[in-house]
Amino acid sequence: MLPKFHIVVGAVASILIYFLFPVTLLQTLIIFLSSFLIDADHYFYYIFKKKDINFFRARNWFMKKRNLWRKMPKEEKRKYKLSIIIFHGIEFLIIILILAQFYNIFYFMLVGIIIHLVLDWIEMIYIHHPLYHKLSQIYTLIKNKNKKDFVF
Prior knowledge:
68% of the residues lie in helices and 0% in strands. It is mostly helical.
């Protein structure tokens, strides 16, 4: 899902949470920011793959890659590796949950991250993309074995 949708839905969800639950403005802000800033892992992936830190080239690269991927037949997609996006999976959620046991701020981050991931899961179902890609990065690594990189 594109960042603008995460921002809009994250804002709406955060406002609802603010009015429905006893949370502070700062806690609400943390939920909101967490609902879209976890996509920074896409940028980190670009830096790792392309050895380039230009944010705008990263955005363009992902948009082009996304458009090509969405047009590709399902059988063709199976030949290619899926990106490892480290903040999009159960492994990252477990780390945040462990940190929340020591610092309450991470509970609010967890709420924002879950809002983000639910939106991603809905999109994965809608576009018939493998759901495991946004559920477990370890499993994605396993499934990527013996597949080609998706380069263009």
